[in-house]
Amino acid sequence: MKTTWEQVLAWRLRRQFVDPRGDAAAAGVVGRLCGVQAQVPSAAETAVGVRQRTPDTGGIARGLADGSLLRIWAMRGTLHLLRSSEAAAYLSLIAAARTWTKPVWQRHFGATPQDVAALAEAVGTALEGRALTRDALVGELLADPRFHGMAEQLRSGWGALFKPLAWQGVLCHAPDPGGRTVFARPADLAPHWTGLPDPEEAAPVAIAAYLGAYGPATPEAFDAWLTRGSLRKTLLRRWFADMGDRLVQVDVDGWSAYLLAEHADELASCTPRGSVRLLGAFDQYVLGPGTRDTRILPAEHRDRVSRKGGWISPVVVVDGRICGVWELADGELVVSLFPGAEPLPEEALAAEAAHLARVGGRGEVPQVRTA
To answer: InterPro entries under this entry (predicted)?
Structure first.
């Protein structure tokens, strides 16, 4: 199958509810995107809301309360919202990379694989049937002499020692009205949680979900998104090969990648719609393929989007390509286009500003200024 990048980007916009926006609830949007980064809760709210025709400002909170969504350390070691019905498949593959057994991880965080196994057992017991704040959980762990040497890392807000436990399905973040860090077990929050499947069972689920939003894509792109390239390459390629005729190989302007066969006709029929969209910080449209993908983000402008400290800027997207960044400042929505970018229609930017106001639950629409 041969196609063009214009068609691919138009298809991704459609599949990700970017253009046109959809009517899916929060859990549906999160599921389609294979998770939404939630290090910054307001960014997760924006990521969902900009994809809804009528933004539902309470949808994420309801999803967390009823267990259809989980907030958990997942892809690339960052906090994500995951739809609970698929979370175990992603976690199974992340855990399969076993990054906590690698010497560099052990040197940096001062814990052996045996220490992590002991922590997993102790935390699973401590959280059984209850939720604990970080301080309360750490207090219980430090009562055990085995963990005295880990006090600094256990108290750290980075959660380095807790991340491998999340990847193994031992703990996640529980909803807390006070905004505190509270841990619980996925098994106690998510209905029908049955634990992590075997990676061989999880792989086709996770790969199909990823390709259904970010395809066509390569095994390497999937691994970069999931584990920062930590999976064994032979294993990764075999998982793709084992999907057989569920996948088709696609030539995109001379670049070869995989797509779900069921989406081939839909991709072939896609054409650009001239859409202008303002997507928020840490948006999955950017993070899914990664900021190094020059098909959506020119290399010379990457540092405007992927900034110091791991911050991913809000972006201006025109027909699937990133052509600038934006920010809200003093009641203004300031749009900064990349040098050489075509001016954008004022009415399109005004419509996006109005939608962002609805997403944020603000009554007043900010004025748009192009810098």
So the answer is: AlkZ-like
